[in-house]
Automatic annotation (TrEMBL):
Record localization: Cytoplasm
Organism listed in the record: Leuconostoc holzapfelii
CDD domains: RRF
Pfam families: RRF (PF01765)
SUPFAM superfamilies: Ribosome recycling factor, RRF
Primary location group: cytoplasm
UniProt entry keywords in alphabetical sequence: Cytoplasm, Protein biosynthesis
Function: Responsible for the release of ribosomes from messenger RNA at the termination of protein biosynthesis. May increase the efficiency of translation by recycling ribosomes from one round of translation to another.
InterPro entries per the UniProt record, alphabetical: Ribosome_recyc_fac, Ribosome_recyc_fac_dom, RRF_sf
Any one GO MF annotation of this record: ribosomal large subunit binding
Domain called Ribosome recycling factor: residue spans: 19-179
The name this protein goes by in its record: Ribosome-recycling factor
Classification lineage: Bacteria, Bacillati, Bacillota, Bacilli, Lactobacillales
C-alpha cells in the first residue's frame, strides 16, 4: 500500500503559482501587462479586473497601452491606476490610456530584488509546511508498513526539494530581469 502524494503535490504547485502571480505584479524597468493584474476597476457598480474591461498591449518597450472595451470606463481605469501602489501616471486621450514605465534607479532595483527574495522565502515556508503536514500524515498512518512509510517520507522530501529548487529558479529569473538594465 503506497502513500498518496497528490495533495502535497497540488499544494506545493499552488505555492509556486502564488509566487509567480506575486512576482508578476512586481514592476521591472520594462512594460509588462502583468503588473496590472491586481488592478480592479469599478465598472457598472462592481469591482472588475482591469483585463476584463480593457485590452492591454505593449507597443514599445516601456509603454503600456490600455484600450477600454467601453469608452465610459476610461475615467474609472485612470482612477484605479492612480489609486494603485504602482506609482505610475496614466495619460488619457479620451479613447485610450497610455502608461509610461519610468526607468528604475539602481536603488529601486535592489529594493525590489529584496522583495523578490522575501516572496520566494514565503513560498519556501509554505512548501515546508506542506512537507510537515505530509510527513505527519505518513507517521499517523498506522496501516502503512514501515518500509513504505520510509519510502513515502523519502518521496515527500524529494518532492519538497524539487519544488524548492523550482522556486529558487523562479526567483533567480525575476532578480535577473530586475537587475538587467
Amino acid at each position: 500500500m503506497a502513500f498518496d502524494l497528490t495533495d502535497a503535490k497540488t499544494r506545493m504547485q499552488g505555492a509556486q503559482d502564488a509566487l509567480q502571480r506575486e512576482l508578476g505584479s512586481i514592476r521591472t524597468g520594462r512594460a509588462n501587462p502583468r503588473i496590472l493584474d491586481r488592478i480592479e476597476v469599478e465598472y457598472y457598480g462592481a469591482m472588475t479586473p482591469l483585463n476584463q474591461v480593457a485590452s492591454i498591449s505593449v507597443p514599445e518597450a516601456r509603454i503600456l497601452l490600455i484600450t477600454p472595451f467601453d469608452k465610459s470606463a476610461l475615467d474609472e481605469i485612470v482612477r484605479a491606476i492612480n489609486m494603485s501602489d504602482l506609482g505610475l501616471n496614466p495619460a488619457s486621450d479620451g479613447n485610450i490610456v497610455r502608461l509610461a514605465i519610468p526607468q528604475m534607479t539602481e536603488e529601486g532595483r535592489k529594493e525590489l530584488a529584496k522583495q523578490v527574495k522575501a516572496e520566494a522565502e514565503k513560498a519556501k515556508v509554505s512548501i515546508r509546511n506542506v512537507r510537515r503536514d505530509a510527513m505527519d500524515s505518513v507517521k499517523k498512518d498506522k496501516e502503512l508498513p514501515e518500509d513504505d512509510a520510509r519510502k513515502a517520507e523519502d518521496d515527500v522530501q524529494k518532492l519538497t526539494d524539487e519544488n524548492i529548487k523550482a522556486i529558487d529558479a523562479i526567483a533567480a529569473d525575476k532578480e535577473k530581469e530586475l537587475l538587467t538594465i
